Amino acid sequence: MKLKQALKNKLTKKQLSLVRASFDVVGTIAIIEIPDELIKKQKIIAKEVLKLNPHIKTVLKKSGIHYGEYRRQKMVFLAGVNTKITEHRESGVRILLDVEKCYFSSRLGTERLRIARQIVPKEEILVMFSGVAPYPLVFAKNTQAKAIYGVEKNPVAHDFGERNVLLNKFWEKIRLIKGDVRLVVPMIGKKFNRILMPMPKTADEFIPVALRVAKKNTIIHFYDFGREEEFRGIRKKIKKSCKQLKKKCRILRTVKCGNYSPGVYRVCIDFKMV
Ligand SMILES: C[S@@+](CC[C@H](N)C(=O)[O-])C[C@H]1O[C@@H](n2cnc3c(N)ncnc32)[C@H](O)[C@@H]1O
Predict the structure, then answer these.
(1) Strand runs (DSSP E) across 179-248, as ranges?
(2) What is the rounded CA–CA span in Å between residue 7 and residue 230?
């Protein structure tokens, strides 16, 4: 509301109604959305965002959706300090990243803590698709896990992950490996107490890889996108994959952990191998 108020004398009523008042904040960067109709006014809007939020130093605009295997998103610089690199703080950890070259969502902080709260001392955890390592870092800081492994294919995200491990001094707890989970995970030579699969849309392709390193009682956190009425189908897909591999699992819970688009949720299915 404050943003719309500040823009009152700079935009027409129609333009004002199109302004998206909420935006993502990653470290000192605000990532805003500008509808096509407001492109000519985007710098004015960005400057107001800077003025109203003293902790924000840079304003970028989302350009298109997440694309490709690395789930990156193009960003256009609008105002402030011209950079795409920032340090985000969450749950006691520092996360350095390039918001354009790596996937990261500050909105998933609550979800990371939800999982952290389930972790019991001495767990060995595998985070598939670890990105710049937010899950491993939050777990290392907030739990008594024994070891956390992360596997990430995007070399830039992996490198930021390594820097973050050093920055937070977690080199004894976290081991990050660069590469494709299909190749890397079987080579780790370990079975895990907990496995995370934060790769909505395609995570089901990787269930066989996860099950190879799961054991009795391993808990798997499987992410997908879907409407509420599709959640049952997602659970069925998991059960079917387990059955095909002659394994049994028990669904523990289905948790909505964000919105993908109107009516479509990011959902996490927690299931346990039995
Ligand atoms: C949705 S992002 C999640 C990143 C991170 N866990 C987070 O929450 O910020 C998925 C990540 O998986 C990585 N990725 C995609 N395919 C992969 C594969 N076959 N093996 C390893 N990583 C992969 C992408 O580069 C991307 O960083």
Answers:
(1) 192-197, 214-226
(2) 40
Domain residue ranges of the chain, discontinuous segments joined by +: 2-83, 107-273
pLDDT tens digits, residue range 184-237? 999 999 999 999 999 999 989 999 999 999 999 999 999 999 999 999 999 999
Contacts of 68 (CB under 8 A, 6+ apart): none
Does ligand 1 come within 6 angstroms of the Cβ of 130? yes
**Cα(53) to centroid(ligand 1), Å:** 31
If you measure from the C-alpha of residue 242 to the centroid of ligand 1, how many angstroms do you get, rounded to a whole number?
22
CATH of domain 2-83: 3.30.300.110
Q: Is the CB of 235 under 6 A from ligand 1?
A: no
Answer yes or no: is the C-beta of 129 below 6 A from any ligand 1 atom.
yes
The verdict on pTM exceeding 0.90 is: yes
| Nearest CA residue ID for atom 6, ligand 1 | 130
CATH entry 1.10.760.10 includes domain 107-273 = no
Cβ–ligand 1 distance for 134 under 6 Å, the answer: yes
> 10: CA distance to ligand 1 center in Å?
41
Tokens of 140: 């290392």
